[in-house]
Design a protein that fits this description.
42% of the residues lie in helices and 14% in strands. The strands form 4 sheets. The protein has a 6-stranded mixed β-sheet. The chain is of the alpha+beta class and 424 residues long. The longest helix has 18 residues. Strand 8 and strand 9 form a beta hairpin. Keywords: Signal, Transport. One of its GO terms (biological process) is maltose transport. This is Sugar ABC transporter substrate-binding protein.
Length: 424
Amino acid sequence: MRRTSAAAVATLTAAALALSACGRDNGGGAGSSETAKDISSGKATGTLTVWAMGNEGDILPDLMKDFEAANPGVKVNVTAIPWDSAHDKFTTAITAGTTPDAAMVGSTWMGEFAGLDALDPVPPSIDTSAYFEGAQKTNEVNGTNYGVPWYVETRLIFYRTDLAKKAGVTEAPKDWEGLKSMAKAMQDKAGAKFGMGFQAGGQGSWQSIMPFAWSDGAKLTKDDGKAYNFDSPEMLEAVKYYQSYFTDGISDKAAPAQPTTEPDFKSGRVPMFISGPWMMSAVEKVGVKKDQYDVMPVPAKTTSSSFVGGSNFAVFKKSKNRDSAWKLVQWLSDPKVQAKWYGMSTDLPSVKSAWDDPALSGDPKLKKFGTALETAQAPPSFPTWEQAVAGFDTEMEKVTKQGADPAAALKSAQQQAESVGTGQ
């Protein structure tokens, strides 16, 4: 389930294949750690050019009025960019040396852009420990932070509480077996056509599978974080479990990339699915009452963990106004500003302390997303991630739709990833 306007998802799927960037062995870039220069005290001044994508790009100018009011000597010009052309626009600008001062950057693009030596390291005065760790990790390339999380999202399991009660389930399951039993009971006792709305492979399906793998302790890298690791025992266990929903008829083999629609959830045809916080308003809009559904964390094998997405904010090395650009990033990270941005956009704060705001802490469902963000994880910041995971997604479609052997599929995904390399 995805909101098309959200960079939380477009971050991962906007570019079909990200360009492979070669790392540098010295002189900065993705091949070595860099020492960042700090910013000056005082207010921002001068003119700033900022790029932002999707809905965020459309409404960011309204927020910039507050920044300009707090810094009377600065003018911020925001360019809104469609997600489907954003990646190419960035890479073209990097090659031509015409990048903006600062920009919203997809989290899976950080490794690539750092590898192209395009991003400026985060100044020491910006405290990176203020952000959710999983989200901040998406900005780290070879030990250097090249940006900060602007906003975040994670995935939980949505379920119809009224139908769960009809199915004899009164408490959210804590393990994999309990979740599958609940989904089957939704079919057998509550009239569901499919108990769980999982994506049947294809582009982006890794986002649904990895929460189970991470909850079993899987790691996407090996060799001290220098290589892909798609065929680990933990990954195999998760893929076998995921496949069983399709082989047992609990999930739909013919499901498209968006396996559950809001009407499906309302009618009870598919009363369970994994998605992000934006689906709360979406299902309520079609008539699902607040007390008819709830969200729960992905059940754990070891420790519950889900996918962390969202978008980062970074400053480019070619910035003509670096000092003020980082002051803008710092301002966007203020907890009060983050809370206001949530009110404008429904984008969840990346700064942990911003979750103390009543608008977030007072909503019990939203609070569960905040708790999940504390253990949520992201893919590695390799420049070639989009290429490597495309092979994984293709193999997963064979697993779900054709009943292919999970071990053979993961071996093939690993071989494809190794042929692509990490780009570092």
